[in-house]
Amino acid sequence: MSLxxxxxxxxxxxxxxxxxxxxxxxxxxxxxxxxxVTLIGFIVILYMAAxxxxxxxxxxRQVFLYM
Amino acid sequence: xDILQIVGLGLAVTFLALILKEKNQVFALLVSLxxxxxxxxxxxxxxxxxxxxxxxxAQNAHLNNMYVATILKIIGIAYISEFGAQIAKxxxxxxxxxKIELAGKLIILVMAIPILTAIVDTIMNLxxxxxxx
Lengths: 67, 133
Description:
A: mainly alpha; B: 133 residues; mainly alpha; membrane (chain B); Spore_III_AC/AD (chain B)
């Protein structure tokens, strides 16, 4: 199992960059583009989080439902 | 994993979430969620040791396998529902957290039915027959 703490900082970095892009796009007057960027960043991070949650649940199932 | 690493990770994630919160609430929540998953993933290995010890003790004591399995399942359900409820509470969804906890309690109650039945049966066998002579 890949216990990679870098994922957390990756997610935080994506969040900060998406926020910056959002601010720039809003200043340029492209509000709908800013919305799309936020949505796509959110989906990417959600996918990473879902993979991790799947990993965690699988492990918990192995430990507790072993019998 | 060392406790120092976990505490350091927790502190780093706390400050990252603080920075992210004023820019974007959702990302801050996701970062803390992923950090929670990581800490639990580190802890699962320790829990596994405790569970193995419990299983060995139960086998040595010749306990009924079904009861031990039920108890282990109940402990797992308690951990998972607590985890989910805390995440929902972090997101400000207190009512959803309450519902997750309610579901966890109900499922634990349902899983405990065989044990409760066994206890009641044992007590009924211990008691003198009522009116049976």
